[in-house]
Amino acid sequence: MTDPLPPAVAEALASVLPWASPGHFLTGLEPGLDGTLSLLDLAVALRTHQDEVARARPLAGRVFAGMFFDPSLRTRASMAVACAKLGASFVELQPGTGMWTLEFKDEVVMDGMAAEHVREAAGVLGRYADVVGLRAFPTRGQWKRERTQPVHTAFADHAGAPIVNLEGPFAHPCQGLADALTLRDLFPEPNGRKFVLSWAPHPKQLPMAVPHSALWAAASLGMDVTLAHPEDFELDSDALATADSLARETGGTFSVTHNRDAAFDGADVVYAKAWGAVSGPASTSRGHADAVAHLADWSITQKDLHRGAPARFMHCLPVRRGVVVGDDVLDGPLSSVLDQADNRIWAQAALLLAMMGK
Amino acid sequence: MTDPLPPAVAEALASVLPWASPGHFLTGLEPGLDGTLSLLDLAVALRTHQDEVARARPLAGRVFAGMFFDPSLRTRASMAVACAKLGASFVELQPGTGMWTLEFKDEVVMDGMAAEHVREAAGVLGRYADVVGLRAFPTRGQWKRERTQPVHTAFADHAGAPIVNLEGPFAHPCQGLADALTLRDLFPEPNGRKFVLSWAPHPKQLPMAVPHSALWAAASLGMDVTLAHPEDFELDSDALATADSLARETGGTFSVTHNRDAAFDGADVVYAKAWGAVSGPASTSRGHADAVAHLADWSITQKDLHRGAPARFMHCLPVRRGVVVGDDVLDGPLSSVLDQADNRIWAQAALLLAMMGK
Amino acid sequence: MTDPLPPAVAEALASVLPWASPGHFLTGLEPGLDGTLSLLDLAVALRTHQDEVARARPLAGRVFAGMFFDPSLRTRASMAVACAKLGASFVELQPGTGMWTLEFKDEVVMDGMAAEHVREAAGVLGRYADVVGLRAFPTRGQWKRERTQPVHTAFADHAGAPIVNLEGPFAHPCQGLADALTLRDLFPEPNGRKFVLSWAPHPKQLPMAVPHSALWAAASLGMDVTLAHPEDFELDSDALATADSLARETGGTFSVTHNRDAAFDGADVVYAKAWGAVSGPASTSRGHADAVAHLADWSITQKDLHRGAPARFMHCLPVRRGVVVGDDVLDGPLSSVLDQADNRIWAQAALLLAMMGK
């Protein structure tokens, strides 16, 4: 016998709009604007009533399998915790460590290293798990191909179960959902608030998944969204078009600038994130290092935050101190980075409950 | 307070014959024919009533510890899922990754690499877990020794708790139990149905555990079992004698042939599996490569399946497409490979409940 | 709905004295003498009523996150099992395998290998877990620094959640609590019983955490504690002073000798443990090897045990047979090593319930 769900959670769950079968969550845009907002309501209800939910174990016997092709602290731990809070089981798989390498190409004679094809690996996982999570970073191949998130797509094609993207080349929708939750916690009325996503220096050519998802999160809440980055560090043009379209739909705005000072003027939130260029001179390893060496002043400082309200500081973590942002910002009262990390639990719990709890 | 077990599950559980103390499951033959059949009944009951069983959590507080000396996708994930469905806890251990290497020899001065003896490692695990699972492949040493499954035997000797073989050199009994379940799903009256186990080409010299267990599974159901393989790829003679003896006991038949076309004539099931020779010219790495190069026509095709009913296709996975079997077979309607993988959950859940649930 | 705790467990839990906020368990001395004794009572109650406790799931929805910078069999498995018995979730993290490397220095420009600072890593873990466990061995740097357990301290400073030491350079308090439990199981009236902690040979320069915690455990129970080791293998002087002070407080005694035969005379317990010197000639790798080569007679034998009651043999495991101690001791009736390992479950379960169950 299990306890019933707290009424506030049950109501929020009932109001989550079901998105189209098979219900993948690959870009995070699948639930649509209303779906996203109702997931945020469910996240708040779960967070508020977490002890009663833990006793109710609404996902007892349900299995979430997370396949990690790339390393993870927050995503892995927060998914394990989200499962724990709901009574679901979390099964983790790391290909290559204690598991076979996978073949993704079709109609290939598998006489090389790969012992298993994604068709079988995904097919089996889809039988074992109610929802399959997948983390696979871009491999710095052709962006035209990477942006389609080919590993995720292959699993979605063959798993026969819903796939949750635990970070892909194009989007990090669990982070985006948690960021939307954090923004709504900071600003119960986010409409008209100024959200600045600023590029930041970093020794590595990091993926663009987080900045894409962060832009969409802010735009989905009707904020005035400004993207600031140096020349040659353009994000994906379709991702920008999506941000623009979301902003129009919600009564927000979206603009891009190379002038960081102007961007920070009047900002309510500064979201810092490093990424590497996918084309042009800065897209090579050497070109990135050269560019970053000249762009150290894009590192976020206290002064940047005080051109606005002052602005709250956000970052998805992990963050390199002294490179992306100063210690004083991270350790000061304007930083929301731990709240963002914390909200991963509740955003993902809402997602899992919406996917498995009906 | 926990829900009671569904009556169908409770009845099936009551009818599982207890096998001799300490109840290891190393070859899979330990429960005897009646025990195996009652485990299959229990597996079906658990699968049918899985939601009620998940709520009842019959193994709450019980611990299954799986020690993996070799990599695993299906076995590890399906055991984790089986535990989840029953409310048991799954503790995974990988010697050598985050753990000490083990000494197996007795009366040795341990001044080398090994920091712990199997006597203590097994003894401790047997205190921590209600059932200990163990995966250890053959090391291509002397077959005479390998066939005794020495790692499994050492743990069984020292754990003081029942051991479940999660694949050893001689048998893969969890796969065998799942295969028996799949065969009974396909043929509610398996008696007299023709089951063909066919060798297949593969670049690696794979173990014989799965073919042994598959033969025993089919023979235990009273099927007409044909083993087809090229010369020089004999399975273990005791394993064959066991298959023959089981077939006699159940009213089935058992035969071995080198003529694959004759074997496939009238087949109801074709189970493909690659393995390496343990003696003779094909037993070396070079000899295996030479032999396989001449045996590409042992790869399973649609045509092979249509010499019979047509025949259903089975394989334990992982499978190399274009080498062991054609894409069209795996992607076609005759393939049961995902059902086999799925049945791992319920076969193992039955086993765990029988071992820990009384 | 969950069952209530068995009355004996609830009473023992109520009597566990809360130690000072934030309730870290880094040396194991934090709960104080009365707190330690009441934890032992709680451990016994949990062990006695384990089936009812498993049904009650007193820590359902609670999360224990264990971060393992160093390998582990017993600690990891026993913590997973302790969580399972209480219904808590165990989330494991291994930095460097599937996770980022961490920066521990403050005010550093993070343009090197480390992708995350302990301030964020600990801060996030402290949000995700109700209690954070941490295993980090000494790195054979300056003992003056190592003895402060700098990794543990950094996490304690930044996690905002209680930290449990799963073995650090200075103490292994979970082992110590289990050892105290084992001593009380062996001697319900431990006062006045002779406890000998004897150094033993080992090819590696092992840490001093276990011997420190073992001394404190025996002294906390009022035993007559003798530490026997060869010259040049002194333990930490503050650790010895703590043992002496605990013994005075409990009516026991504490002494140190280089004469192993005298130490074993009349012993009720012989606890063997190898460790390396942190200063002096034996503290180098070469010096250790030279010293150990001349100290083979410090290996524990049956004869040593029979200079006393006869004495029970204890060791924390893993143990090198034929080096630290003879096979006949480990396999004989005087060995308590498996009971010590088993008691890890119940000592840690008491700790977790005391930290999370109120």
Topology:
The structure is a homotrimer of 358-residue chains.
Chain A: H1 7-15, H2 32-48, H3 50-56, E1 63-68, H4 74-86, E2 89-93, E3 102-103, E4 116-117, H5 118-128, E5 131-135, H6 143-146, H7 150-159, E6 163-165, H8 173-186, E7 194-199, H9 209-220, E8 224-228, H10 237-250, E9 253-257, H11 260-264, E10 269-273, H12 285-293, H13 302-305, E11 312-314, H14 327-330, H15 337-356
Parallel strand pairs in A: 1-2, 1-5, 3-4, 5-6, 7-8, 7-10, 8-9, 10-11
Explain how this protein is built.
3 copies of one chain form a homotrimer. Chain A has 15 helices and 11 strands. Chain A has helices spanning 7-15, 32-48, 50-56, 74-86, 118-128, 143-146, 150-159, 173-186, 209-220, 237-250, 260-264, 285-293, 302-305, 327-330, 337-356, and strands at residues 63-68, 89-93, 102-103, 116-117, 131-135, 163-165, 194-199, 224-228, 253-257, 269-273, 312-314. In chain A, the strands form 3 sheets. Chain A has a 5-stranded parallel β-sheet. Chain A has a 4-stranded parallel β-sheet with strand order 2-1-5-6, with helices on both faces. In chain A, helix 9 (209-220) links the parallel strand 7 (194-199) and strand 8 (224-228). In chain A, helix 1 (7-15) runs antiparallel to helix 2 (32-48). Chain A is globular and about 50 Å long. Chain A starts with 6 loop residues before the first helix and ends with a helix. The interface between A and B is large, with 33 and 41 residues.
